[in-house]
Amino acid sequence: MKSAMKVTMAVVLLGGAVWAGSLMNLTAEGASVGNQPGTADDPVVTKSYVDQQIQKALGGGTAATSPPVATATASPAPTATSSSSPQSSAPANSNEAVIVDVKPGQILMGSAGAEFIVRAGKAVIFSEAANGVADLTDGKDLANGQAAPMNHLLSFPRDGRGINVQDGQKLGLVVLVRGGYTLK
User: Fold this and answer.
1) 21 by DSSP, 3-state: which?
2) What per-residue confidence (pLDDT) applies to 12?
3) Which terminal residue of the chain has fewer beta carbons within 10 Å of its beta carbon, N or C?
4) How far is CA 22 from CA 9, 28, 37, 159, in A?
5) Phi, psi (deg, nearest 5) at residue 176
């Protein structure tokens, strides 16, 4: 009888273990994610779709499927005239950059908050005050009469400051301007 009791106990224990395991499996299935990526419940999306949805959320409009391409618009650059009146201009959009040609003898004055980048020619800082112009590229303050380096971002914190062509230069300057300016 001892061996029959052992076999019976083994069958009951194995049956109980299988039954308990099946109950635990049901609990574990409820804790799983359940949705596989790529199904209707959890779709896989493309980067362009995500970018489009972000543009809709931020800008309130639809975004183009291709990235924006910079286009150049032809706009006449201010040039010197025979009259002595200064020419003044400010872009309609404050982030819009304008190319300005500065002839020898002219001064390109920046309005408060304007930014210049000298693209061609040798420029010198002009300042009516003791303080000069901030060279944001090098982190320096350029005083009146100092050379303005090419391809450096120059910030004009107040009115009355600008740049002109270095003495002895026959060619003018080509300056990228963002913000208000006056050409004297």
Assistant:
1) helix
2) 92
3) N
4) 20, 10, 27, 81
5) -90, 120
